[in-house]
Design a protein that fits this description.
- The structure is a single chain.
- Helix content is 38%, strand content 20%.
- The protein has helices at 18-32, 108-125, 142-154, 177-181, 186-189, 206-213, 222-230, 238-243, 280-291, 313-325, 339-352, 366-375, 391-397, 408-413, 437-453, 455-466, 473-486; strands at residues 2-6, 36-42, 53-66, 69-80, 83-90, 132-136, 160-165, 173-175, 203-205, 216-219, 248-250, 300-304, 329-334, 358-362, 378-381, 401-405, 430-432.
- Strands 3-4-5-2-1-6-7-10-11 form a nine-stranded mixed beta sheet, with helices on both faces. The protein has a six-stranded parallel beta sheet with strand order 14-13-12-15-16-17, sandwiched between helices. It has a two-stranded antiparallel ribbon with strand order 8-9.
- The chain is globular and about 70 Å long.
- The N and C termini lie close together (12 Å).
Length: 488
């Protein structure tokens, strides 16, 4: 099958968060299973070009209708971990992708509207007719709209569009200028059953347009699919999702099991696996030495996360105090974009400064994240909501027992040691329901007590998690089934 993937990120060349990892991992697996896969990205000036092999100019002099102009753009081609990638490079004074960062500009809707039309213009003018165009999140949500409203008549008749919703908190709400910019008619499209925003009669909701126009819509876990249909996690789009539920499915993400593999990980002190679990002890010793923690007979509780409201920052702070008060050590790695959240954790860092049982690393450190997973006993994931979540899957691969809130993809990957109806060899962690300190303590307390009182049972939870298949193999197979069902 010929699949063109369109996104704002693809790790490692363009990565802000989990979206980049998902596109990278899924594309590699789809290609591994024998499909022709290509990725189209913006040519940001902040790309990690050392990750691109054989980068060269592939097409030049293409043009995109934008307002009353025809804006020129070139397309560069290269390979990222074997994935064929194309980079849309505008040649205009707008400098759409020369901002030093991927997101966060006031004209983001216009930048990505240009990108969406440029992608389709590139496919049309280079005679590409993929079976599937697979788009991701609001930044590419105009692709299915443009495909049916404009490019069907121009000759791009073969592709069907699958759109993946990663996080409905971000919907791409903008003025109707964003439609006019790329040649769409606001009068016709700004209706309640098309792109009119549910909360503002003067605004366009780009993500809503993707739900309406795509041939199929996926989201990143079965539980999150249920939540966005039936709870406030639909973020105002529940009615639209209900109208199109016949083409909606949750497919849980996978992780890159080559990058996250304790048996081969070059970033950790001692490699290990299910058959050599005692090797994990050296990683704990080395991390304690590196971070200035006591080498004590205590469980090491960890948090590896963005520090954002979605991730449950208040419960993270409580988890630090509760773990220390329960005879544990605590390591936190995370960075905050919002200043008030950063200050909360700076205060916590000052409170715990000098403790031989606690270390907070407030920033992003890829190497340290591997070392924490390799050393830790317990990972805390107290999310307010979590479309999928990758940290709990990575943790389990490294023999870390997750303590997580019962939401989204956490429900689909963490099975409670005491209350799950799964077989004993499938339970792998602890869950809690209430978004409260008491809720967190109910699960974290059970994990800590098990570590102290029943070490063999705790060891079995580690092994159960390590033996789970959280690779991209299964999810990629599900996507291929979806693609087969909708292709022309």
């Amino acid at each position: 099958m010929y699949i063109t993937v369109v996104g704002a990120e693809c790790a490692p060349v363009a990565k802000v968060g989990g979206l980049g990892d998902v596109i990278h991992g899924l594309c590699r697996e789809l290609a591994k299973q024998g499909n022709q896969v290509e990725v189209v990205l913006p040519k940001y000036d902040c790309l990690h070009l050392d990750s691109v092999q054989d980068l060269h100019l592939a097409h030049e002099g293409l043009r995109v209708p934008f307002y009353e102009q025809l804006l020129p753009f070139n397309v560069e081609s290269g390979y990222v971990d074997g994935i064929h990638c194309f980079f849309i490079d505008p040649q205009s004074d707008h400098e759409f992708f020369r901002r030093g960062r991927i997101y966060g500009e006031v004209d983001d809707p216009g930048r990505f509207a240009f990108f969406s039309r440029a992608v389709l213009e590139f496919l049309l003018k280079t005679d590409r007719q993929p079976d599937i165009i697979h788009c991701h999140d609001w930044q590419t949500a105009l692709v299915p709209v443009l495909r049916w409203e404009i490019y069907e008549a121009l000759g791009l008749t073969h592709p069907r569009v699958c759109h993946t919703l990663h996080n409905l908190a971000h919907q791409g709400v903008a003025g109707d200028y964003v439609l006019r910019a790329v040649g769409l008619d606001p009068t016709r499209l700004m209706t309640s059953d098309r792109l009119l925003d549910w909360g503002n009669p003067r605004s366009v909701n780009l993500l809503k347009g993707a739900i309406v126009y795509a041939s199929f819509v996926t989201t990143v876990s079965p539980r999150y699919a249920w939540e966005i249909l039936h709870t406030d996690q639909g973020m105002g789009l529940q009615a639209t999702l209900q109208s199109h539920r016949h083409k909606l499915l949750g497919v849980i993400n996978g992780i890159d099991v080559d990058a996250w593999n304790p048996m081969t990980d070059p970033r950790i002190a001692q490699t290990y696996g299910p058959e050599s679990l005692p090797g994990k002890a050296r990683n704990k010793w080395e991390l304690r030495r590196k971070l200035g923690l006591d080498d004590a007979t205590k469980p090491l509780v960890s948090i590896v996360s963005r520090l954002a409201r979605q991730k449950g920052v208040d419960l993270m702070r409580h988890a630090v105090h509760y773990a220390l008060g329960s005879g544990c050590q605590m390591v936190l790695l995370g960075s905050a974009l919002e200043p008030w959240i950063d200050e909360l954790f700076r205060d916590l860092e000052r409170e715990t400064d000098g403790s031989a049982d606690c270390h907070l690393e407030l920033g992003y450190d890829e190497e340290l994240s591997h070392q924490i997973y390799a050393a830790a006993d317990i990972l805390v994931v107290p999310s307010v909501y979590e479309p999928c979540g990758l940290s709990q899957m990575i943790a389990m691969r490294y023999g870390v027992v997750p303590v997580a809130r019962r939401v989204g993809g956490l429900v689909d990957s963490v099975f409670d040691a005491n209350y799950s109806d799964k077989a004993f060899e499938e339970v792998n962690g602890f869950l809690f329901d209430d978004l409260s300190c008491e809720g967190l303590e109910s699960a974290l307390g059970r994990a800590i007590r098990l570590w102290f009182k029943y070490p063999e049972y705790f060891r079995q939870l580690r092994l159960n998690g390590m033996q789970m298949d959280n690779s991209w193999s299964g999810p990629a197979g599900q996507y291929l089934s979806i693609f087969e069902s909708i292709k022309a």
